[in-house]
Amino acid sequence: MSLADNIPGSAERAAPLGEAVKGRSLWDDAGRRLLRNKAAVTGMAVLALMVVLAVAGPWLVGFHYDTVTKTDVWMGPLTGGHLLGTDSLGRDLLARLLAGLGVSLAIGVTATAVSLVIGVIWGAVAGYVGGRVDEVMMRIVDTLYSLPFIFFVILLMVTFGRNIFLIFLAIGAVEWLTMSRIVRGQTLSLKTREFIEAARAAGLSSAQIIARHIVPNLLGPVVVYVTLTIPAVIIAESFLSFLGLGVQPPMASLGALIATGAQDMEMAPWLLIFPSATMVVTLMAFNFIGDGLRDALDPKDR
Amino acid sequence: MLRFLFRRLLVAIPTLFLVITVAFFMMRAAPGSPFVNERQLSPQVEKAVMARFGMDRPLPEQYLNYLKGVMVGDFGPSLKYRDKTVLDIINENYKVSLILGGLSFLLASIVGMSLGVIAALRQNRIADYATMAVAILGVCIPTFVTAPLLILVFASRLGWLPTAGWNNGAIPNLILPIVVMSLPQIAVISRLTRAGMIEVLRSNYIRTARAKGLPESLIVRKHALRAAILPLVSYLGPAAAGLLTGQLVVEKIFNLPGLQKFFVNSALQRDYTVVMGMVIVYAVLILVLNLIADILHAALDPRVRLS
User: How far apart are the CA of B110 and the nearest CA of chain A, in angstroms?
Assistant: First the structure.
């Protein structure tokens, strides 16, 4: 690899400098490095496959995830046309698994998006404005950090009842904290750079500088953290479902399936093993992508 | 050093104050009351009960009274358990979480650091790949997956260990919960240690130590490890807090009488004082452990000045 690949300032081309020489941007480089990373590519392929399966599930599997068949209870894998067997109510496990996978992925992406928006804005404003404002904003983050996660969940639940949007809210309310800390730290170091000074000299307002110059240059660490937040959210949702506080039956999620599987594991171990395996593969795929992105975007860290 | 401690404690106090305030008002804003689920109380009795706990006062006044109590270490009586104070309850329930969390933390630190060092010394060889594979698996398998699977294999099928229960802390009952709790931590700790070691082993002072002819084991133990675990130390603070306050999933699956289960029950029953007490314990623990992490950081790295 040539030295030019590693010039840290190449990210600054995101700033509108008119017609620059067409060079390889940080993202071109990162993309190429990412595609060379076998684990990350495998992770992406697996995830793409999972999304397709989760979306196409109802058409692929001959059973609906919520059809109770009293005659087909506790069927083992590969019996009676049920590829992965059935549960205590005779529902097809594969259909439930794909439906649950879809729910888990959707929650993971949505809650992460929520935490991304709040965390980036919060962290960038605190870091850029600095002083009193920074202190107050970060004290709020510290405070929320010090409250147990389950505390938020229970309070939201008793106030608004059990509801899937609350799960987003509760998880998002916790996950944005780390994001805002990362963004703030990056902003603090970006703020002192010349191109920000130039923007200020050009008469841009703080809001414009944050939106046009700070945030685009934060993308590297943020993208890496996002790929690590999605699995964290999936785990958090599963944790809640496992405790019976997450998605409510007949809906399924990976966590809810693992929870019922754990109850029935003596009787029907496949109900525990298949959802667990799916969960682990999903989390691994995200982790490989996250690690790959980190290596690709931060060459010095290899 | 003393000045640093003093300053950090001064900064911690407003955070703790905010935590108490936010938790207090959030708790009270939620619907429900600690006295509804019992036998239907007549309005007079309910009024008398409310008055006994000072809950007939306006909320801001209750808040100030609570704060006054907390400042002198009085967390008030439980609203659900007769004749027990919040401190009694925390004392009774803390033991299980403390034992499990403490042992898990010890196990995770020792195993994780050893694996990390071995992986770094054997970089890109089988031992390294094996360790890192374990580390990746450890991160990707949540406790609610490992716990039932381990129970299925080691308790139900093989019958080597009990499936669940506390049994007064008998060692066979502790093994599975501790393993389940420490696995994800082992994964992270070994990764952090490996990364730190690899970086440090490349540095000039290690080359100097080698050139001096020091034995490799001495270099690793005395010179490299000390610098390599610096990034680890800041991770261990919050990790220890997470382990010591108990883990709901583990307590549920293994049916252990730990702090988290109690916390959830109290929150569902609106036992306000008990919930507040536990929130405070949790926050203090996080603050203290982070402080310890900072002190350790300075002790390990002479370049860091505590000021």
Answer: 25
